[in-house]
Amino acid sequence: MFKELKPASESQESLLRKKRDVGRDYRDFVVNTRQNLVHVRESTKGTQGSPVMLFSNHVRLKSCSQRHLYKYNVIYTPDIEDGRKREALLSELEKLLGNRCIYDGNSLLLPHSLGETKKEVVSKLKNEPVKITFELSRELQTTSPDCLRYYNILFRKMLEKMDLNQIGRNYYNKNKKTEFNEYRLEIWPGYVTSILPYETGLTLCADVSHKLLRMETAYDLISHTREKARGEDAKEKILRKLVGSSVLTKYNNRTYRVDDIIWEMSPSSTFTKSDGSEISFVDYYKERYGTVVTTLNQPLLITKGKWKKSRQDTPHQPIMLVPELCHLTGLTDDMRKDYRMMRDLSTHTRMDPDRRQHKLLTFMDALRKNNTVQKELRDWNLELEEGFLSFSGRTLQDVRIHQGRRMVRDKSAFGNTTAFTMERALDGVSFSFLMNFIPWLGILFQFDNHKADWSKNTREAPLLRAMSLDHWLIVYTKGNYETALTLQQNLQRVTPKMGITVRNAKLLEDLEFLSLKLKNTVKILGSTLSVIQRYVPQHSIHFPRHPVLASWGVSRLLPFKVLCLLPTDNKEIYDGIKRYLCINYPIPSQCVLKWTLDRPKTPVTIATKIALQMNCKLGGALWKVDIGLQNAMFIGIDCFHDIERRRKSVAGFVASIDPDLTRWFSQCIIQESGQELVKGLTTCLYTALKLWSEQNSSPPRSIIVYRDGVGDGQLQALIDQEVKQMESYLENSYRGQKLTFIVVKKRINTRFFIEKDGGRLNNPSPGTVIDLKVTRTEWYDFFIVSQSVREGTGTVTPTHYNVIHDTLYLSPDAVQGLTYRLCHMYYNFSGIIRVPAPCHYAHKLAYLVGQSLHQQPHESLSKSLFYL
């Protein structure tokens, strides 16, 4: 571990001590949200759909006895900051504690009692006496949820004994790494593990993981950048490349995020150790790790330590890193553009279900054959069962997708074909009703929908609400006139079938853009924006008389759109254009890279996607589905945290303002860095309900919220803050309003597989629901596999849903079906996505504002999907 640049102040030390005191009273528990949901107290299992047999990556962990375990809080006097020193002091007390104990840094779990509720002993640290007090916290059953933290610590120790190296939270085998010398990359194979309680008891969830390292140190990058600078500001270039990147120090297998570079210091510089003595960085590494620093004229890197959502207010003491010892991790943008390299890497990192399960079975066999691991398990009366958990899931019925005069029945869940019906509007009579009784009214087509993708049919039928594009600009650089003209022609070729009228655009050449050859981003950006400004009125809603518009014979401009054809993916230029057209001159905008249009064999496909995006940004709608819930508003909430630059966090709030989910209201809340829970929801909800009432003459009967980005440890805080905000507002302003609040979790390690003919494992079909065995008894939760993954390209990741509040009393079948149908309503992809559409819209909004705008978009854009 790196030493601090300077000792913590007294106030910081007292703050850290208080945090540890809180930790001593900490108790692992699961927030029992189900106990307040009376309609699902008996069962959270659904019944609809076709049964399907599933396998998982969970292994049951059995307890072989009902003996008690004892949890003790451990207090050091004087206080010891260093966690390693705390553990070293405890290791000297083997006669008292025995050789079976699990220490988490604050408390201790023992299989036997110390005989007293409070016991004090004295140990020595460098001949200085330290009093250690053990206070009995509670007696526990071996299956108690309070033991989980200790079992996970125990399991991590067992992985270390299997010669796996910890990097972050996961463990990797560097002895089995795969080297890609051509790309100067290496991949370490590893595993993600966690022990949690489910309906079947404790289970070990194991999944395959990979760590990608570059055969390049931070010092190599600094040296190469200096050589290529050629008189330019080398330091500025180095800062841009290094700040925000992650590095691995192999001498302790820890990862750090680079926050700054201190040019005035070098490895020869000294710092003050915790005991008050001075030592140079060179001597420290040699003394502590046996590592020799060879280059003394390199600067030092600064990191503020690990960034955590729950500790954004904790003071960060700077940690110094020597670039020579820091190995770069992850891929650069240039690397990601190398198709050949990405293809070669994916052969190792992307595993289909059969290959993944084989790797996991090998891992479990190694655990069972390792004598040290088995002894550890026996010492704690634990045993891993043979084989992975298997159980029955259900595949939901097809979802009907309405587009203009067409209705698509998505039957990807039942096979590789989907029924496609073209129907006529008959005096407002329900198409679905007529098709149930008069099937010959429609013409039935079959098409391959194994990918749960209906993009082909989208471009061949009128859209649900098509917006004509009469007045718009295409801004391009010198020499790209033909590309701009071809794009316009392709758009005019693909849009008639969709019902969109695209008139000729005003083609504007930005001469200065190319002449600067991208050497000065500020000037380039200013040039582009000045071109746009000359042809765009000040506001897109209220239009003053404008000379250019007058020359076109237009007094009003509705709708108006700007398309920028960019020769490079320079982020600063993109961000500047988006800020200008989302804040200063709020009009819908589209940025397209020239190389995207130049790709062979895809001009029609690309033009179609651009047309669909433009239609949505102008207020159009592509399709709709039968939601099955009348007069309901759907809300999505997600937060974006700029971990790299530690800027302020952005919460995205998106709400449907019509019953068909084709119109959306959006608003952002900018918060302190790292803040996850949102405080300004009342204002957002007020505006959303007001817009709904204006468009539908009455408020919605119910509100369903999908909240992404919240961890299990934040559930109680979420209920106390966000749910309470919304519930209190509805009680005071809208009597009888029903509220359902669902937490969405994407980053999970649980996987599900189905067995195909021949015994091979495959991915479950889209629409597969799992609501037993691996769900929690304290929650109203379930998993849905909504995406489709091409065979042989990887393993699908399910999404976990947890209903934490429900005054609408939705049954399991209702909430599962509703959630799956909403996964069909994201307009930026003609297929099924991983999460409900409002959730992903909120993510896109928060990401755009957090990455590019850094302030509130203009309110005139709040009723359009400008962030797609």
Automatic annotation (TrEMBL):
Every PAZ domain range: 217-330
Entry annotated with the keyword RNA-binding: yes
Membrane spanning stretches: none
Domain of life: Eukaryota
Keywords carried by this UniProt record: RNA-binding, RNA-mediated gene silencing, Translation regulation
Domain called Piwi: residue spans: 561-854
InterPro entries given in the database record: ArgoL1, PAZ_dom, PAZ_dom_sf, Piwi, RNaseH-like_sf, RNaseH_sf
PANTHER family, per the entry: EUKARYOTIC TRANSLATION INITIATION FACTOR 2C
Family affiliation: Belongs to the argonaute family.
Name listed for the protein in its UniProt record: Piwi-like protein 3
Lineage of producing organism: Eukaryota, Metazoa, Chordata, Craniata, Vertebrata
The encoding gene: PIWIL3
